[in-house]
Each structure stands twice: as C-alpha cells, then as structure tokens.
Amino acid sequence: MSPKKYTRIAVTAIFICLLAVTFIASRNNDFFSGKNSSRQKEAAEKAYGFYLEPVNKEAGISFRHIAPEVDPKLNNIKRQIASMGAAVSICDFDNDGWNDIYFTNSAIGSKNALYRNLHNGEFEDVADKVQLADVNRTGTGVSMGAVWCDYDNDGFKDLLLYKWGKPELFKNIEGKRFEPVTEGGGLPSWVNANSAIWFDFNNDGLSDIFIAGYYKEIFHLDSLNTTKIMPESFKYANNGGRNFLLKNTGNGRFEDVTEQYGLTSTKWTLAAAAADFNGDGYPELYIANDYNVDEFYLNRNGQRFEEKGREAGVGHIPKSGMNASFGDIANDGNIGVYTTNITEKGILIQGNNYWQPRNERSAEHPSFVNLAQISGIENAGWSYGAQFADLNNDGYMDLYVANGFISAKKNTSYWYDYSKVTGGNSAIIGDAKNWPDMEGKSQSGYEQDKIWLNNSDGLFEDVSDKVCPTATYDGRAIAIADLWNRGVLDVVVANQNNIPLVYKNQAGNSNHWIAFDLQGTVSNADAIGARVEVEWDGKKQAQIVTGGMGFSSQNQHRLHFGTGKSDKIDQVTVYWPSGHTDTIKNPEINKLHIVKESKPNN
Amino acid sequence: MPKEYQLESMPATASLSQWLKNNFQYIPPAFITLILLVGQFTFGILDSYMTLVAAIATAMIAEIILARIVLGTWKNLASAYITGISVGILIRSNVVWPYIVTSLLSILSKYVFRYKDRHLWNPSNFGVSWMLALYSVHVAGLSIQWGSNLAAMSVIWILGLLIVNRAKRLHVTVTYVISFSILAYVRCLITGDAFLAELSPLTGPMYQLFIFFMITDPPTSVSTRKGRIIVAVLVAIVEFVLRLNNLIYAPFFALFLVGPVAKFFDLRSIALRNRKREKPGVGPGSVA
Known about the structure:
Radius of gyration of chain A: 24 Å
Largest interface: A-B, 54 and 55 residues
Helix content of chain A: 10-25%
Number of strands of chain B: 4
Number of helices of chain A: 9
Oligomer: heterodimer
Structural class of chain A: mainly beta
CATH topology of chain B: Ammonium transporter fold
Radius of gyration of chain B: 21 Å
Number of domains of chain B: 1
Strand content of chain A: 25-35%
Order of helices and strands of chain B: HHHHEHEEHEHHHHHH
Shape of chain A: globular
Largest sheet of chain A: 8 strands, antiparallel
Helix content of chain B: over 70%
Distance between the termini of chain A: 92 Å
Largest sheet of chain B: 2 strands, antiparallel
CATH architecture of chain B: Orthogonal Bundle
C-alpha cells in the first residue's frame, strides 16, 4: 500500500472517530438526567446534609395559582402570554417573629393568599381577613408579584402589589389589617409589570420603588385593539414597557423621577435587584431583560443612574434574562449576580450567568466575569426564579433554580413553531397574529427544578433528583425563609397555573448557623441595602438585605448564614445604608440576632 | 478632450473588471466578513470573538494540512475561510470546542467523502448539520442576529444577490427562494398557520447565509444550469417535508441529503459522457 493510502486511511479514521465521539457524547449528556433515582430521605440527609420535603398539606397551604385571561385575539398563543404571575414573597407582617407567606394569583376574581404562620407547623390564610385577597379585579388588572417594605418607617411592613394593571400600595395597620393607600400616592396608573423592588437609591432613609414594565403600559392584555404587542426582535427588542423609578417623598407619596434619573429604557424587563457594587454606599441597579441584553445602572451618589452594562461586561450578549439574585459563592465577600435564561437542547443554548465582580468593591466602575460555566451552574432549562441559600448550613451558598415554561400536552413541543417566527423580521415577530397556534403544545415543559450544591471548591454539584421528590411544575418564583424558626432554610416555589411547593428542609447534620434581622434607625427601617459580612474560620461571607430579588419574589427579611462545623464566629460587620458601620465580635451561634442600627455618633 | 478622457478611463474600468474576474474567489469571503463586521458593530452578534477565531483557524489549518498530506498540494484558503466563518456564525455553543470540532469535521468531510476526486458535501453544511442533529446537548443553531431589522436585511439581500449573480448562481438562489415561498404557502394551508409565519424563516439570518453561501457553493453544485435549478427545487421540497416534521434546521438537513446525491450523479454522468467521447467510434480508418 502506498504512503498516500495510509494517509487517507488515517484521515478517514480520525473523521470517523470525531463523528462517533460527538454522537456518543450527546447521548450520554443531558441537562435532565431523566433518571428518577430519588434516594431515600435518610440517604439524602446523610449524603448532602438535607432533604426538601413538600409539606403543603401538613402546613395547611391549599393555594393554587390561576393564570391570567388574555384577549381572545391572542388565543393562538394564550398559554405563552399568560405564562407569568405565580409569585411568592415572605414577610413577618404581624411582627410575631415568624415568617408568613404571600402568594399572588392572576385570574380576574381569583384571590391572593396571605398565609399567617401559626407557629405550630401550620399556616392559615388570612388574606381575606386583612384585606389582601380580593385584589384581582376588572379595571385594576391582575397580580404579577408583591414586595414588602416598611415604606413609612412605622415598624410594620407594607405591601406593594404589582400587576398587569394598576400597582397598588397597602399600608400595614399594626399587623392587623391592610389599608389601600394607592390613590393619591403617585403610583402609575397602569404598568404591565413582572418585577418591582424596594430600595433606597438616595439613602435618605425612605425606601423607594422601582417597577419595570414588560409589555407596553398602553396595553390592557385582557382587552386589546391590536395584536401588535410582541417584541420586535428575539434579541434586540426595545419596544417593551417603560420603567418607573418612584422616589419616596416621605408623606405617603411617591414622585416619578424615572427620566430625571435616566432609567428611560424600554426593554422587556423581568427582574431587578439592587446592591452597592462599588462601595460608595449607593445601590446599583441590575436589570435582567428578556429579548435583549441585561442592564447595569451605576448609581451616581443618589443623584442619577448611568447605564454601564457593556462596560461592566454584562451587556454584551442578549439572552432572555428572567432573574437577578445575589450570592457570595466563594466566601470571599464578593457578591455576584445570578441571572437565568433559556437552555433547550439543540435549539437554544443561552445558559444562565453568574456575574462575579472582577474587582474590589472600591473600584469606581465595577465589571463582572461570567463564572456560571466554570462553576457548573450554567445549564438548567427554561429557568425563571433562582435564589442562593445555604441549604445544608455547611457555610457555602447553594442554588435553587425554578424551571419549566409551559407544561401542556405531553410529548409535544411548540419549539419548532416558535423558531419560525422568532427568527424572522420584526414585522412578523412583533404581531401576535403571525405566531402559530400553540394547539395545546408544551414548550420546555415538565422540567425539574435545579438544585445545585456548593461543594466549597468553586464547583456546584447537581443534586436535583436526590434531595427532593421529583416535581415538574412550571416553576416561577422562589422564596427562601426559615419558616419554622429551626435554623435551617426552607424553600417555597410558586408554580404557574398550579400549586406552589412548600419545602420543609429536613436537616441531616448538626451544622451551625447564625441569622440577623436588621432594623434601620437612620437608614430605612428595613435596612434595605445593608450589607452583612460574617467572618469565621478564615472565611468571610457577605449578604445583602434586599427589598425583593429573584423573579417575582422576596426572601425572608433576615439574613441566614450557615457556618458548618464552626461554632465560633470571629466577627460580624454591618454596613448600613446610612454609611454607618456596626461590628459585633463573637456573637452567639445558632441564634437569630435582632440588630438595631446604632446612631452614628455612638 | 472627451475622447482623451474616454481613452484614459476605459482601460481602468476594464482592468478593475478583469481583476474582479480573476480574483472573484475573494469576493464571497469579503462579503461574509462584511456581513459579520456590520452585524458585530451594529448588534454585537458574536457571543465571543474567541469562538469565531477558533472556527476559522481550525478550518484553515486543517485545510493546509489535509491538502498537503492527502492531495499533495497547497490550496487557496478562501474556501476554508468561508467554512470557518460560516461555522462561527451558524452554530451557537457556550463552549469553544464545538466550534473547533465542527470546523474540523467540515474540512475533513472534503477529504474523506470524495468521488471522482471531488468532494460531495458542502463542508460547512456537513459539519453544521452533523453537530445540530447529533450533538445537540452543547450545540444549537443561529436563531436571530441582525435585530430582525428590515434595513439590515435589505442590505444583506441586495449585496448577496449581486454577488451570487456575479458568481453565476443567481438562478439557484432565485429558484430556491421561489420554491420555498410557494411551499410555505402550501404548508400554511396544511398547518393552518399564517403564511407570514411559514415565510418568516426566509427573513432571518440563517437563511441569508444558506441561500447566498451554502446552496450556491460552486464546488458542490452540479455542472449544468438546468441541473442546479432542479437541485434547488429538490432541496426546497425535502425541506418542506422536514418542516412538516417540525425540524428547525430543515434547510441544512435538506441540502445535506440532496446535495451529495445530486453531485454524485452529476459527476457520474460527466464521467460517462467523457468516456463515451474518448471511446473511438466507427469512422474513417476504423476496423469494422
């Protein structure tokens, strides 16, 4: 045989090997294992230190979300349009020291639920009693989410309800009832909002509001006179709803300062979260956008915001931003932002992002690097809400990600139809009547939520099918809270058009923990924006008090830190929004500490 | 004076035209680069430069090595460049190595699947189709890049049509577009979806690269104008069937299936014709 023939055989062999490797590798590597190897609860507790047990029934939680109704002109893609609204937020509304749960509902006439913690493992829906139930009415729109904050600094947390409709503010009257104070309060008349947060952007001690529109505010989605409501592009759409930055003027009124502060973007926002990333004491604003790039707004001394997404590295690649939540995954005091997107095998591989700050907090212009891939927390599915939480108290923050878009007819997929229009010209994609009829098809449906365990070495382990029973609802909002004051973090997942999942964390170890409930005196009463750093055993974990983060969700107000086997905390430092710092040396372990901001001159 | 002006200008035009004719092989790479640059600077279409560089570098290096060791020649790298850049644009992955593997598979296919010393598959069509069909865990296709913008789309279409016209492949693009549009209408009658929904993919960037660079690729096109028209219609028909079966990347798969078969029969019929021509016939001096 001639050398040339040998060469050809070798080339062919390499070629065949490559074909075989790609083929075999693809078969063995799926985002969802498909195996339901649900180990026994005891085995999970032993292996991972915790097990999440659904306890809806035992806890007396019978809530079920109902999706919004949309104009019949949108019937062809009704399931897609009406795919949001299941939200959950945690609040101790009656100041009894126990976390309560608020769920939103989204059909006209459906009721929201406020589950008051009865301290015995059970909850009671008191929404009707306190006048927070019947809020989804014709003319005012339907609920998409709710965030709590003591906006008037009276010691009780009030409620901002955002809707595809008129946002509403309810004043908490000593934890006994809620009084609507929307009228005359300066809130916008209509926003098709899927995200809102409280934050004190100018550190004046009064919590302000950011509400972001998704669909344009000129549309009432249940009664339209056009079908041209859709994004003009799958990746570069700027025809979404407007933002509202509402400054708390202290007299029960809010002033629209959106333009003045430069938040005039009309991207399709689905999530927002605020934290100080450059150490100047003023919170920056991270905005996760669907159909476009995310935005990062640098806060200029509380006087204005400047969009620096590209410079910061987060605004280059347009994805489908649906979540913004904070977590310090390496215990180095560096808080990153986790944003969720879409990953559908063979069709759309966007991957979720974990934006880790590149530089110290003192850097004037923060920039970020995406560590999601390297950390193993990139591909989850069609993800919505996500929250970091130390689920096994080992001292490292784990990650829970809600998955699943539309679970309708099994073994069907709308993806092909979806791809036809989303790849096309803006005149086609922008008009709902051009979108193929869903005909009851699923799209990224029946996906399991992801639970990633932080293995402390910068890598996360996927334990989704091991630490809880298999559940494939269409997950939306996630809220983390110690619901039963046991020193472990429980998880509540609001599922679209379905029951929520209330997971009781069954700890399988004796790890230690410490928690802090912050109360501002000079700063806003909820201490939103305060940063707590806990140092132990050579580690330093930072967390921030937020007025809502994730997707349509709000975690418990207190900050919870697992410390593993360490039973000694060296130091806790609290950086208050006022600029004041408090330090606590060797605080008692396994205890919730109520920390009141000391006066600056102390 | 006008006469003198004419005398001076004519040769310049003629020489430009001649230069373009002699160096036409560089026009498509220049065009696809222009598309990429415009897209990148207006919309930031690339997820990362690294993936593009990896795809192009792999294709070009593989071409140099394989041409040398398999064919014993040095090849012009314009074709490998187009393969690399097409891979860089057409597939999407969060990791770099699928770009390298796709480029490598594409170029390797040119040297492995040969008939009558010609390759059968359009290289990037082979690599991209294989990865989309069989390595979907890490690879997806181009979804949308130019902002769904009519102006950007029009510029690309005009330039693209000018170039395929210059390459004498306008009939392929036009035949395919007409066939696709007619079959889109038939599909909308079958599926009940809006005609615009069925036509919509044609307005996206994936198709712009497909109709200007892939289906018109001279080395893998058949030899006659009539044959090329028939192949374009067949690709559209196979794509029609695949689309009815909900395959998102139907055009790539259709060309993957139809192109090599057509090329095979074309090369075979050329060989038969040549053999017939070379075969001595009955004539003066022949021995009966």
